[in-house]
Amino acid sequence: MPEGHTIHRLARRLNETLGGETVRASSPQGRFEGGAAAIDGNGLISAEAWGKYLFCDFGTGEVLHVHLGLIGKFRTRAFPPEEPTGAVRLRLVGSEHTWDLSGPTRCELLTPDEQDRIVERLGPDPLRRDADPSAARARLARTERPIGATLLDQSIIAGIGNVYRAELLFVCGIHPARPSTTITDTEFEAIWDETVRLLRIGERSGRIVTTDPEEIGRPRSRMRREDRLYVYHREHCRRCGAALRTDRIGGRPITHCPTCQPAKRRPRARARSPRR
Ligand SMILES: [Zn+2]
Predict the structure, then answer these.
(1) Contact by Cβ (8 Å): 109, 35
(2) Is there a catalytic annotation at residue 2?
(3) Which of these, 110, 108, 136, lies nearest to 51 by C-alpha position?
(4) CATH number for region 133-271
(5) DSSP for 61-123, written as a single string
């Protein structure tokens, strides 16, 4: 499932390639014919992301809402457009770019009120300039659920998925099973700051890289795939060499280091990454 950085990158690319242009919209597959007809011939005013949700405003009074889900893809295609391949739910064509959306969980037009109702259910999105971390802090402090589970909860922080939650907890030195109520203000600040920092890196580069270039010995753009993460899908801790553990938390497996992420809280200086 794409994490928040992917959707923000997608929104930025849509703005860059279609922003302000008159867009021809169609539904080659036929399942979004009415919606595409409503968009067709209008200009893209803005595309924006909130967590894993994408909203595109074409100035029609309704907003296009796309949720990619597990297998959805929204990508650029040849221009001028060629015959669509596969089941394309929505095709957008500007003056120089073709975009095809296929396999989304949601592709629909919403009224502004309906959009508000979706956003109201979401926690602050660390990649948005209007994000208010205090809302996430307050929600976290009210739940005994493990921090590994609450980081996946989009109503607490919007945009973190399975890869980032494992990496964030490692970078912050926090055991994923700790009840969220035990997370201190200092630890929460570290989680939030690292989320903003790592998702921004992901948004810019289009891939999830959480490791420190100094630690790896090469810049992020030249890191090998296996050097980009600390714990996710790994067997041994990159930092201390300990055998990693995998537990099911929040309904999904999370890998963590028993040494670097002790079950009992340690002083901040030892629990945090040495370089920031
Ligand atoms: Zn370790």
Answers:
(1) yes
(2) yes
(3) 136
(4) 1.10.8.50
(5) SSEEEEE-TTT-EEEEE-SS-----S-EEEEEE-SS-EEEEES-SEEEEE-HHHHHHHHHTS-
Mean pLDDT of the chain: 94
For 4-120, CATH number? 3.20.190.10
Joined together, the tokens standing for residue 238 give 């990159």
CB 100 within 8 A of CB 84: yes
Answer yes or no: 73 catalytic. no
Task: State CA 67 to chain mean position distance.
Answer: 12
Gap from CA of 229 to ligand 1 centroid (Å): 13
The reply to whether 194 belongs to the active site is: no
Report whether 130 contacts 9 (CB < 8 A): no
One-letter amino acid identity for 18?
A: L
Handedness of CA 219, 225, 197, 239 (dihedral sign): negative
> What are the boundaries of each domain within the chain?
4-120, 133-271
Contact 160, 151 (CB under 8 A): yes
Question: pTM of the prediction?
Answer: 0.91
252 a catalytic residue: yes
Report residue 262 as tokens: 């002790």
Residue matched to tokens 């770019």: 97
pLDDT (tens digit, 9 = 90+) per residue, 154-201?
999 999 999 999 999 999 999 999 999 999 999 999 999 999 999 999
